[in-house]
Specification:
Layout lengths: L1 E9 L2 E10 L5 E5 L6 H8 L7 E6 L2 E2 L4 H5 L2 E4 L11 H11 L4 H14 L15 H13 L5 E5 L7 H16 L3 E6 L2 H7 L2 E6 L2 E7 H7 L3 E7 L5 H11 L8 E3 L4 E6 L2 H13 L4 E7 L3 H9 L3 H14 L1
Parallel strand pairs: 3-8, 3-9, 6-7, 7-8
Antiparallel strand pairs: 1-2, 1-4, 4-5, 9-10, 11-13, 11-14, 12-13
This protein binds adenosine-5'-triphosphate and magnesium ion.
């Protein structure tokens, strides 16, 4: 996938404002971005559903504007909102797609059965999709996008609204597609999902790419490690934070209390700093129940590059989940 200078406007809105990206064959690119960043617009252009105003995009060797018919034969798409035929059963939906993709009756039947099994829909296979729950519809939609073994798969927020077990099932199927050679572009609001599946990440905001790189590179960009300290009693968190601030330890930036976790987060860049902070807290008589270091999370990476505060990022995701 080679995308250069993609621009798409809707009236006064510049949904895409010059997007460049490259996805190497057989890899997964995660596209992260807040609501309205332009993720779905990008997926719709790359799957030939809409045309860009300017810029170019080649996918699997085909130009998305000049060779849409050829491109459509090699791509699979799961849109942000499930699109299944309500009147047909789960099996019939998949069988129909298989037949449209030129599978023989026998192969279409076998493949539909296989995909129903993989997405835990076998029991519901004969019921009309109209009676499916939201999560079941999404799974059926995902199964449909994978039925023809597409060389390129687009997944637009594939696990929004799915329960944790089902989310794992979907991740497993995406990994299986990649092992079989597929190239995947995945948009998501879940940092964990990007971390689980993506080789590389592109962060978009207001139609522009604001950061890109390998997951580990993006994490490194944010800086060193975070020292996570858990006091025996969370009530002392503010006092611990103040103690670290007042000690004026060399090179230690402001510590952050995370009441929801009952922990204090201290950004550090060396083992000496780690030792100094733990020694200080011990000397001040704080009883510690846990000490850990971790790389910055993708949430923190996202924050660092978008400038949004944690509360907003977390709140946005929660609202979205609640809405879904
Ligand atoms: N058909 C359309 N007509 C008018 N405006 C549109 C249309 N499609 C998208 N937009 C606008 O383009 C911008 C990008 O929308 P897009 O759906 O690509 O965002 P997104 O990153 O997918 O967001 P979300 O995370 O909410 O799905 C938004 O401001 C949106 O309102
Ligand atoms: Mg979208």
């Amino acid at each position: 996938m080679e995308v250069r200078g993609l621009v798409k406007t809707f009236g006064p809105t510049r949904a895409l404002d010059g997007v460049d990206l490259t996805v190497r064959p057989g890899t997964v690119l995660g596209v992260l971005g807040p609501n309205g960043a332009g993720k779905t617009t990008l997926v719709r252009i790359l799957s030939t559903l809409i045309r860009p105003d300017s810029g170019t995009a080649r996918v699997a060797g085909y130009d998305v504007v000049r060779e849409p018919r050829r491109l459509r034969r090699v791509i699979g798409l799961t849109g942000q909102y499930a699109s299944v035929d309500e009147k047909l059963s789960g099996f019939e939906n998949l069988y129909m797609i298989g037949r449209l993709l030129d599978l023989s009756r026998k192969d279409a039947r076998a493949r539909a059965g296989e995909m129903l099994e993989r997405f835990s829909l076998t029991e519901a296979a004969r019921r009309p999709a109209a009676q499916y729950s939201g999560g079941m519809r999404r799974r059926l939609d995902l199964a449909a996008s994978m039925i023809g073994h597409p060389a390129v798969l687009y997944l637009d927020e594939p696990t929004t609204g799915l329960d944790p077990r089902t989310r794992n099932e979907v991740w497993q199927e995406v990994r299986r597609m990649v092992t079989d050679g597929a190239t995947v572009l995945l948009t998501t609001q879940y940092m964990e999902e990007a971390e689980q599946l993506a080789d590389e990440l592109t962060v978009v905001d207001r139609g522009r790419v604001i950061a890109e790189g390998r997951v580990a590179e993006l994490k490194a960009k944010v800086g060193g490690r975070t020292l996570v300290v858990r006091p025996a009693d969370p009530v002392v968190l503010p006092a611990m934070r103040d103690a670290v601030a007042d000690a004026g330890l060399d090179g230690i930036a402001e510590a952050l209390t995370v009441p929801a976790e009952g922990t204090l987060h201290v950004p550090i860049v060396s083992d000496e700093q780690l030792t100094a902070v733990v020694a200080l807290l011990g000397a001040r008589g704080f009883a510690l129940a846990g000490v850990d270091t971790r790389l910055p999370s993708l949430d923190e990476v996202f924050l660092a590059v978008t400038g949004q505060r944690p509360a907003e990022v977390a709140g946005g995701a929660d609202e979205k989940e609640a809405a879904a």
